Amino acid sequence: MKQFTERLICYAQWPWGQPIPKMRNKKKQKKALLMTSSACPAFIGRIAFGGTFRTLKACADCLGAATAGKLYFGKVAIEADTPLSEPHKQRALRAGRHLVQ
Fold first, then answer.
1. How many domains does the structure of the chain reveal?
2. Domain limits at 64?
3. pTM here?
């Protein structure tokens, strides 16, 4: 993920005399669904890994995408080949529908 994020630099420009770079693509013509998971419970993950969504949002912004939703799945892959729970599947389905509207 770090390498992917670093390679988004081509979507920015650093005008002469400016203190920070500016994004080339300012139009939000696409939608992005930000999604992450971990083995820890969701409420702990949201607190401990809050920077992950900030990074994903920055990546979406670089690519000209507006955030259509965020999904965080906790207690995932505690055991090998664990399927998503029914509530997780329903949340993903609702988010996907929102993404394509």
1. 1
2. 26-100
3. 0.73
